[in-house]
Design brief:
Helices cover 43% and strands 15% of the residues. With 258 residues, it is of the alpha+beta class. A hairpin with a 5-residue loop joins strand 4 and strand 5.
Length: 258
């Protein structure tokens, strides 16, 4: 049995997701724009653009929290001078969330939907080096980038069918779907399809968590497929992982379902 012990690993601990997020709106005869700033610790994230659009995203990192706050206050004063007005009742859950281009500073609560931040609290969800996290493997990280790129082009994108689309149309592999948790059957499928089956399982759960991270919701069918896929992965590899256990537990209790 392949076992990963993480009791002394703080990646399973809840991280401080307290954010200092403010939204400012600009509205005149020529244009309607939004500008959102989110800062805490040493990182500052911006989301801005025309009202109704996804807008652009930018993340900056500073040497200290003091410098981060100072820069944030400077930017806010500048926007107010230009005519932007703070909307204290702004609903941040209505937004779509993407990561800073090229993942310069990785993924973080500042670039994730509030529903994701509030429910998936363990540090490993944002760890791009932890193989068992949704976006930590090369496949998971690539899947997140692909779904962000495709969703930006098409807001009606079908998340349920995207794992199959990604594997077969972009990666030129075969998507293997199997609904059973019978160990003998799964071992046979794994033996016959090997890498394709593994990839199918990993991409299914990566896309599921990506949908929540971006939109704050998940399609019911994709949630069901993902819970099965994660359990199948553990069975096929005779694998024990506290990270997988946590993902299954958290996803099972996630209530924002389409």
């Amino acid at each position: 049995m392949k076992t990963k012990f993480t009791k002394n690993n703080n990646k399973l601990e809840e991280i401080d997701n307290s954010l200092n997020k403010k939204a400012f709106l600009f509205d005149d005869e020529k244009s309607k724009k939004f500008w959102i700033i989110d800062y805490s610790g040493i990182t500052l994230s911006l989301n801005y653009g025309k009202t109704g659009s996804i807008g652009r995203f930018q993340t900056k990192e500073f040497e200290s929290e003091e410098k981060c706050i100072k820069q944030a206050e400077k930017l806010i004063k500048s926007k107010i001078k230009k005519g932007y007005i703070e909307d204290e009742s702004f609903d941040f859950k209505k937004l779509i969330y993407f990561d800073e281009p090229e993942y310069t500073y990785g993924i973080s609560p500042k670039t994730s939907h509030p529903n994701f931040v509030e429910h998936f609290k363990s540090a490993f969800y944002y760890d791009c080096s932890e193989e068992d996290s949704p976006f930590g493997s090369d496949e998971g990280n690539d899947a997140l980038k692909e779904i962000e790129e495709n969703y930006r082009k098409n807001k009606n994108l079908n998340f349920i069918s995207f794992p199959k689309f990604l594997i077969e149309n972009i990666w030129d592999m075969e998507y293997i779907k199997c609904d059973t948790l019978d160990k003998d059957i799964l071992e046979e499928v794994s033996e016959n399809y090997s890498v394709d089956f593994d990839q199918s399982l990993m991409i299914t759960y990566s896309i599921a968590f990506a949908q929540i991270k971006i939109t704050g919701k998940i399609d019911k069918e994709l949630k069901e497929n993902t819970l099965i896929a994660m359990k199948q992965f553990l069975i096929v590899h005779d694998y024990k992982s506290e990270f997988f256990d946590k993902m299954i537990e958290d996803l099972s209790s996630f209530e924002y379902v389409n």
